[in-house]
Design a protein that fits this description.
This protein is α/β, with parallel strands linked by helices. The protein has a single domain (about 20-324), classed as Aldolase class I (TIM Barrel, Alpha-Beta Barrel), CATH 3.20.20.70. It has helices at about 15-20, 60-70, 90-95, 100-110, 140-155, 170-180, 200-205, 230-240, 255-265, 275-285, 290-305, 315-324, and strands at about 30-40, 45, 55, 75-80, 115-120, 130-135, 135-140, 160-165, 190-195, 245-250, 270, 310. The strands form two sheets. Strands 1, 2, 3, 4, 5, 8, 9, 10, 11 and 12 form a ten-stranded mixed beta sheet that branches. A two-stranded antiparallel ribbon has the order 6-7. The longest helix is centred in the middle third of the chain and has 18 residues, at about 140-155. The structure holds ligand PBG.
């Protein structure tokens, strides 16, 4: 069918007509909101490179969790800023670690809010890498033990979903085994399956104080040039027992989201990362773009590419905008 018989503009005449034929809709049920939990008391510190996002101490969680819950956002993902770091990431799996305490506090405020935890070592290692370091190298197999302990300690504290983001080989099966052995065979794993060594994480590393003190993460996170490798990484995680798979970042990797979506029948998450948020914030502050319209367009694009779940710093704004 072609012009003048077919005229695509017929279905674009009014908002009601456009809504009737809309292929993708974003809903609040799709969103996970990241929170940065810090040691200390009475801390609510705005992250300079991420306007509108804060490091919060546990005693400041009441108001935050209430707001998130009232907006109908179903889930949060927690990142921790411990008081001290060491070469064995002991804070990552401490029973009274920052994330473990935050989980308990959140569950007291709203037991129904889904608490996802980022399972990684970078925030707890004095060198800022996601695994155990020796002679300037990150050792894979030694890191697995610490990651598995961390995943189990989160589940013990009450986490609903654990989400390994470290990119060590074999970490999903290591965490699955430890969870099962510890009596948490019902706790799902959301794996950062295709996580790229991206410069879009810059603002996050300020937020979570997790920048590596030497080198970079390219020996464990994926090369941004690769997409077939994303399929291999995802197959490994699925075979190892991942329940939800993730592509990260989202916006520069929409093709990866679409490719993974086409190949796997698992729930798919995408992480709309810190740099993607900061770019929109900065341009909006300058008056160059309309924050609301651009952010909603970005989130809709991520869904259209095939994501079922979006982790985004715009979750609270999006929830408000979706209500209006
Ligand atoms: C921890 C982790 C990072 C992010 C999520 N988990 C940082 C990194 O890998 O360097 C990035 C999230 C963001 O940029 O919003 N490994």
């Amino acid at each position: 069918m072609y012009f003048p018989i077919y005229r695509p503009r017929r279905l674009r005449k009014t908002e009601a007509m456009r809504a009737l034929v809309r292929e993708t809709s974003l809903t609040v049920n799709d969103l996970i909101y990241p929170l940065f939990i810090t040691y200390g008391k009475n801390v609510k510190k705005e992250i300079p490179s991420m306007p509108g996002q804060f490091q919060l101490s546990i005693d400041k969680l009441d108001a935050e969790i209430e707001e998130i819950s009232n907006l109908g956002i179903p889930a949060v993902i927690l990142f921790g800023l411990p008081e001290t770091k060491d070469s064995g990431a002991s804070g990552a799996f401490a029973e009274d670690g920052i994330v473990q305490e935050a989980i308990r506090a959140i569950k007291k405020i709203n037991i129904d809010l889904i608490v996802v935890t980022d399972v990684c070592l970078c925030e707890y290692m004095d060198h800022g890498h996601c695994g155990v370091a020796r002679d300037g190298k990150i050792l894979n197999d030694l890191s697995l033990e610490l990651l598995a302990k961390t995943g189990l300690s989160h589940a013990e504290a009450g986490a609903d979903i654990v989400a390994p983001s470290d990119m060590m080989d074999g970490r999903v099966s290591a965490i699955r085994a430890q969870l099962d052995a510890g009596g948490f065979s019902d706790t799902p794993i959301m794996s950062y399956a295709a996580k790229y060594a991206s410069s879009f994480y810059g603002p996050f590393r300020d937020a979570a104080d997790s920048a590596p003190t030497f080198g970079d993460r390219r020996a464990y996170q994926m090369d941004p040039s690769n997409v077939m490798e994303a399929l291999r990484e995802t197959s490994l995680d699925v075979e190892e027992g991942a329940d939800i798979i993730m592509v990260k970042p989202a916006l520069s990797y929409l093709d990866v989201i679409a490719t993974v979506r086409a190949e796997f029948d698992y729930p798919l998450a995408a992480y709309n990362v810190s740099g993607e948020y900061s770019i929109i914030k900065a341009a909006a502050e300058k008056g160059w773009i309309d924050e609301r319209k651009v952010a909603m367009e970005v989130l809709t694009s991520i869904k259209r590419a095939g994501a079922d779940i979006i982790l985004t710093y715009h979750a609270k704004d999006a929830a408000k905008w979706l209500k209006e």
